[in-house]
Amino acid sequence: MTATTTRPLPTARLLPPLPFLLLLLLTVLLYGCAVTVPAPTRPARPAPTEISPPAPAPPSTAPRPVKPRPGKVAQPTGPAGSLYLEAEAALRSGNPGRAEILIERALRIDPGNARYWHLLGRAKYDQGAYPQALQFFRKAESRIRGDRELAARNREYLQAAAARAGGQR
Amino acid sequence: MADTSRRVKKRWIVLSFIALIITAISLILGPRVLRLDRMVKDRLEGRIWALPAEVYARPLELYPGLELEAQALEDELELAGYRREDEPAAPGAYARRNGSFEIVTRDFPYPSGLEPSTHFTLTLAGDHVTAITGVDTAESISLIRIDPARIGSFHALEHEDRLLLSRAQLPEMLVKTLLAVEDRDFYNHGGIAPRSILRALVANLRAGSTVQGGSTLTQQLARNFFLTHERTLGRKANEAIIALLLELHYDKETILTAYANEIFLGQDGGRAIHGFGRASRFYFRRDLADLSPEQIALLVGMIKGPSAYDPRRHPEASLQRRAVVLAVMRESGIIDEPLYRQALSEPLDHSTRVMKGGSRYHAFLDLVRRELQREYREQDLNGRGMKILTTLDPQAQRQVEQQLDRTLGAIEKKAGVLEGAVVITGRDNGEILALAGSRNPGMAGFNRAIDARRPIGSLIKPAVYLAALEQGYTLTSPLQDSAISIPSPGSQTWRPQNYDRREHGQVPLYLALAHSYNLATVRLGMAIGLDKVIDCAKRLGMPGNIAPYPSFLLGTAEMSPLEVGQMYQTFATGGFHQPLRCIDSVLDADNALLKRYGMEVEQRFAPTGVFLLNSALQQTVSAGTARALTRLIPATHAVAGKTGTTDNLRDSWFAGYTGDKLAVVWVGRDDNLPAGVTGAAGAMIVWGNILKDLHPRPLELSEPPDIEWAWIDSRTFAATSRRNPDAVALPFVAGTAPDNAAVLPGMEAIEEKTRGLIDSVRSWFE
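Output (structure tokens, whole complex):
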């Protein structure tokens, strides 16, 4: 996955999910052939009040405060890539405050980058600000698109931050 | 013997006489000296060392790929006080050549540390930065920032503008020239120099007019500092006493520094230019340290008469005076003969464009000051020489100022003079990029962006619909847009109406929002419960206590544009509450970080509900009340937004966001009479005109994983084929799409990309 603001070429984006796309294409195609006339005389849908609200997710069992691994991350590219690397280095050398300043600058340039939000979460995590770290991991989660490695690591951190934030709130 | 005793007696008489005179003088002058002494201490310590807080805009980040017009870059440089030169070498200079810039930045203290001056070239092509290269290293630079423009200062004294320097910051050439011209005995006299006075007296008598001043620097400081400009003997005496007291209390270097910061050197409109630091910026657009010998000569020469030797108004007199000072510099050995000749031949290179001393950003500075006052006392704000780094984006601010006034002028009808307010923030970081509290940016006054609380009308509706989506409604849930009356105990029955005074029957939820139907909204809000809607509005960031009246559903709540911005930020971020910020950090006079206002987020809504709502707000622009916006910003940008109009067209609102910016615009009248424009005809046009020139990024919503898309007939709001001309693709939480809908699992993007392919394949079968 790329971490730049420039968008990848459509073809590049299409290549990985090609088998899936072909399947999708087939489905749509078949469907398109089968149903050519919409059904305008559909009966009215049930009154909205009858729609039961989605059941709230069961309270997750308190996650054990696992020790998340920083792990290796794909080299980010793009204008703020150097800031990311600098921030990561600051984090490794035990200077999360500096990492925070650097990564916020990176986010100003490339705000959609989930990797940056994740690193901001880690900067907060390393400063012991677990509730805020948790929020940044959530933000990162909302921005992750397809990067499974990042998603897994972010999840790990998110759970650890949630466990630690419990006592801080 | 007799002789000796007579001598002793005589000595006694003389001593007694002297003692008597001293006692008399002490008795007469004592109280005055004590009074002046207190004044000297109070004023000097309370004033010279009261450094104003300097406020800076955000630094401009430059990197290859950045969308940037050459003119915008030049404007930024000019605003930051850069001077245009043919061969820039010293910090704070730039050259603009065909399609490229050569820039030498200045050192600047950022929260992450001091960033040293950098000399680089920047190439532009087709409004994009294509390359940045270091001049000395010839290496390409991936990211660099221009030290930010100073946009204002908080100073205890109005109408004065100064930039205070320490003794170490005063260039030696300036100090030597100053002493050679104004006070050769500075380091030897005790505040007043009787010999100088005599010498001046003789010279003046000989010439028949005042050709030489006898005042020491200390006396001049005393004069410039404390007293009015009357010329009386009493004042001369006070001046002398103060000079002596200054010398008594402070060392020479302190007095010299005070003088350099205090001396009056001209007038910039209503602001007096005090001190060499500010004068250097004002006349030459450079820092004092970067001045050439002839520029130093010009400034020192101006002390004699800032108005008479003003290089802009009296270039001839200014040049003559400069030559006199240069001659003194040569005689004193400050410059050698070749340098003297070269300096003498230099033309007056003062910047022809007057740099305004930062009085333009009233609304924004007002907000910054209010924020700071929560944490700092007034005297700290004015006195500690703090540097306040803010989030202001000068390009966005200029666009706001130009377009607000221009557009209001174009849409004004007979109704009278319209006013307006604008807030622009970064969509993902909540930084306030621009703020207008009035259509006249030059006027400090009522800050409508912060202080004008007006009913928000339909801007409340997204809160109602989001509450419904949270309750399990879908974008196609059918709503009844028909008359409703709600009895309220103790007052009249409430009978809301649609804007077009018609009923629209059964409508799908997303269209009821897109078309801003009042009746459907009230019915929806009452069905899910006012408490749910109010809770949703509060989580979105609506401040204050909200009375649970049904009319709340149609936006009777009063909010300022800034508060609306805070609320809509929660939509724009995908459900994360994010406090809006105008300050990035505060540094002290020694550039140490005092406080950082870091980013904060708090997830307040599940991503799915907000995603559905944001999709509906995109429909508002593509097919609803804000359709006309696509004339200003292409439909492909998929802007999300909402119009708002209040009773009798009193208030016209638009709130919306692109991929990178959120903006809220209010248009109305100060006297609360009808403004005569709807949200779409007023505020939305202002919004579009501002955003269209700010290179808005297209809005791509972050799609949660449990979203699927289905084709819906926009008239029957049932599932349909995508070949139906009325078909619209809408997102649903997995499992909630209408029956029989061909569900496309997620990623509208993929769907879009395959469309062309599908069409061509389909064409083979037809």
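The longest helix of chain A spans residues 148-166.
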